[in-house]
Amino acid sequence: xxxxWFAPPRVALWLLRRAxxxxxxxxxxxxxxxxxxAMAIRDGNATARRWFWRESLVAVLTLRxxxxxxxxxxxxxxxxxxxxxxxLRHGARLLRRAxxxxxLSVLTLALGIGATTAIFSVANPVLFQPLPYPHPDRLxxxxxxxxxxxxxxxxxxxxxxxxxxxxxxxxxxxMGSWQVTLDDHGAPERATGQRVSASFFSVLRVxxxxxxxxxxxxxxxSTNSVVMLSxxxxxxxxxxxxxxxxxxxxxNGAPYLVAxxxxxxxxxxAPQAEIWRVLGYDASLPYACRTCRxxxxxxxxxxxxxxxDAAVELSALSARLVxxxxxxxxxxGAIVLSLGDATLRAARPVLWAVLGASALVLLIxxxxxxxLQLARSMRREEEFAIRSxxxxxxxxxxxQLLAEGLLLAVxxxxxGLIAARVTLAMLVARLPATMPRLDAIxxxxxxxxxxxxxxxxxxxxxxxxxxxxxxxxxxxxSLRSGRRLTGGRRHLxxxxxxxxxxxxALMLLVGAGLLxxxxxxLMSVNTxxxxxxxxxxxxxxxxxxxxxxNAVYLNHERILASLRQLPGVKSVATVSQLPLGGNLDMYGxxxxxxxxxxxxxxxxxxxxxxxxxxxxAMGIPVRRGxxxxxxxxxxxxxxxxxxxxxxxxxxxxxQDPLGKRIHIGGPNPPWRxxxxxxxxxxxxxxxxxxxSQFYVPERQxxxxxxxxxxxxxxxxxxxxxxxxxxxxxxxxxxxxPVTALATMEEVVSTSTAQRRLALMMFAAFAGxxxxxxxxxxxxxxxxxxxxxxxxxxxRSxxxxTPADILRMVLLQGMRLAMAGLAIGLVGAxxxxxxxxxxxxxxxxxxxxxxxxxxxxLAAVALAACVLPAFRALGVDPITALxxx
Amino acid sequence: xxxxxxQLVLLAILRAEDDAYGVxxxxxxxxxxxxxxxxxxxxxxxxxxxxxxxVVARVGDPTPERGGRRKRYYALSAAGRRALRQSIxxxxxxARGLGLGLExx
Lengths: 884, 105
Hints:
Chain A is of the alpha+beta class.
C-alpha cells in the first residue's frame, strides 16, 4: 500500500486554488496534500479522496477573503476592458454578499425573460418566420370571391381554366382534403391526407427525399392510385422501409403505389396531413360542376408578381368565366392571398395577444428589479461616497453600476432560457392541434438572439436607473451626515416604477378578466342542442366492401341497433357532421316558389344527413311540423327535409315553410318537401352569428357518407359508457377504426381552444404581474418606513396618534396604487384593439370587469401596505431619536 | 479570554514543539479531542491568533509529499503564552470546589 501515491481530486484542487486566499494558499494546500497522502496509505485512496473533497468544500466555504470593502483599483494602462472586468468581479462579489437581493432579482428576471422567450418561440413561426419553402413570398392561395366579398374554395374546372390562362401564375396545383384508413402494416389507422395535383410539390419546390415526384400522366382518374408519404408516417408506421417505394400499400381497402417519401424537414401546407394522393380529378362526374367548389388552388406566382397583381389578372379571367357560365358562379372575381396569410392569419390574433401579455410581464419584471437595485443603491450610499471621495469619477461609478446590472441580467437571462426550455414542451403540448406550424416551434437561433437582446437591454436599464440617481453633490452630504439620504429624486424614481408596475398589472388582469368573461358568455350561448349526457364518436365504412351505398347504410343501422341494447343508452343516431365538430359541408338551397335568375345566389346551409332519431338524440327541438321517422328511409317514401328556423326565415320571411318544396345542391337535384322546422344550432363556432341548416334522412341523399358521427344520449354520466360504446362499435366491423370518442361537452369546449389558450396564458401572466406589483409596493413602502423612522419618531413625540401614523403610511402606499390604477385603466381601454376578435359579447371597456379588477388590485395593494404601516406604528420615539 | 478552539490550537502548537504546522497541529487536536476537525477551521483560527499577535509564523522547506509546497511553522509568542496561561487559569478557578474532579492534583 505504501507505494500508492495519493491522487488528489483535480476539481477540488482547482476550487481550492480559486477560493483560498493567497496568503494561505500554498501552505494550506500543501498540508491537505500531505495529510491526504498519509491517509491514503493508512485507509486507502478512496477514503483519502473523500476526506480531501470534504476538507476542500469546507475551506471554500469558510476561508474566503476578508470581508473588507476594497475600492476597485484603477488598472494600469487605462484599458477599458480591464476596468470592465474588474467592475464585473467587484459586482459579482457584491451580489454574492447580498444573496436575498440577488436571488430575488435573478428569479424575477428569469421569469420575465423565460416567459417572453417561450412565448416568442411559440409565436415566431406564425408571426415572423417565412414559410419553409423556397421563395415563400411567391406562393399564394387563389379563391373565388363570393357575392358578400368573402373568399371561397374553387371548383376543379375553374382551377383548370385559371391555371391554364393566367400569365401571373407560373405554376398551380389544386388540393383537397383526404381522410384515409391505412389498413395494412398493423392495426387500421386513421390518417389525414391531401389529394393534390401532380404539380403540387413542384409548385412548393419540394423534392421527395426518397423515390420520385408524382408524374403528370398519373393525374388522371384511372391512374391516380399513387401516394407520397411524409417522413414521419413512413418511419412510424412503415418502419423506415425503403423497399416500400415502388410497391403498394393498402389504403381504404385498395392498393396504392408509393411513389416517394418526403424529406423530414417538409412541413405540410395542410395541418396534420401525412399522406398525399394524386388528385386525378374526373371532370365527367356530376360533382365536377363549376358550382361544386371543394378544392383549394395553390399557385406559385411569377417573379416580381405580388398577390395583388395576380388578383387583378385572375379577377378579369374570372369575370370572363362568369360571362360564359352565368348560372354557375355567385359573383365574379378572385381573391389572392399569400400562402402565409391564408394559412396563418386565423392564428395570429391570439399569438399577438399572448406575446403582448408576455411583454407586459417582462416590463413589470424589469421595473421590479430596477426597483430592487434602486433600494440597494440607497443602502450603498456610503460605499459610493467613499469611492467618490477617493477620486472615482461619476463615470466610474456609473460603469460599476452598469456592470452590476449586466451581470444580474445575464444570470437572469441564462436562468430564463433554462426555464423557457423546460416550459416550452409543456406549452406546445397544450396548444390546439389545429394550430398551424406546430412542428416548427423551437427554441432556435432567432429565439436565442431575441432573448440575448432583451437581456442586454434589461441589463443596461437596470444599471442605468440607479446610476442616473447618483448626483455627486449628494455624496458630500452623505459622508458628512453619516446617515442615509432620503433622496427625493430617488424616491420619485421608485414611486414611478411602482406606479408603472401597478398599471401594467392592471392591464394584464383586465385582459384576463375580459377573456374569462368572453369565455363564460360563449359557453352559455344556446348551442341549439343539449350537450349534457351526450357521447359522440366517429365511425367509418370505407373500402371496397362499402362501395355500395346500401352496405354503408346497413353498417350504420347495425351500429345503432347494437348501441341501443347497451344499458343506460336513451337514444342513438348517426349524422354526417357534428355541430362544432370542425366540418364544413354546405349546400345552396333553392325554393320552388322563390326562383332565382342565378341559382348560385341561393342561401347556403349546413347539410346533416341523419338517421331518424338524430334531432331527439341531440336534444334539438322541433319547432313546427314533424321529426323524421323510420318510414322516411323506405325506398318509396317521398323526399323530405327539415330546415332550421334561421334558414326558413331567410327564404320565407313571415311565411309558413311547411309543405314548401326545395332542391339542394348539384346540377339537377330532385324536389323535396319541407316537413319540419328545427331550432338553430351552431355549426362552425359558438360566436358565429348566422346559421342555416337543413336535415335529410340519410337514405334520401345522393350519396352515402362513409364517415359519420355517432351520437349517444345516455341516462347518466356519458364517460362511464365510453368503453362499452367503443367496444360495441368496434365489434360491428373490426377493420374500421373508431376515432374521436368524446363527450359532446368536450367537443363544444374544444371548439373554443384558441380562446382557452389565450385565457390560460393571460391568467398566468396576470397572476405573476400581480405578485410582482404587490412585491414592488411592499418594497417601496417598507423602505420608506425604514427611512422615515426618525420622522415618525418625531411625529409621535409631538403627539401624533397611532391612527395618524397609520393613515400617513397607508396614504403614501395607496397614492402610488391609485396612480397606477388610473394609468392602467386608460391603458386597459386600448386592450380592445389588442384582443379584438378574442372578445365575445363584451366591450373592452366593460365597466364591471374594469371595476372588479381595479377593486381587486386596490385590495391587494392595501394588504401590501398594512405590514409596513404596522411596523411604523411600532416605532418607539425614544429609540428613533436616539439612533442618530 | 481565549475561545475554546483557540486554546486547543495553542496547546497543540506547544505539543508539537518545533514541528508545529497545519498537519501536526490538526492531528494533535484530532487525536486528543477525538473529534473531526477540518484543516480550514484550524487555519481560520491560526490566522486570527496571528492577527492578535499570539502566534508567530515562519516559512519552512518544501517536501515532495506536499507537491513541492512549503510549510508554515507556528510558535507561541510571549503574549500567546501569557494569554494561554491566563485562560486556563480562569477555567481552573471557575471549576474549583465544584466536585467535578477538575482540581489540580
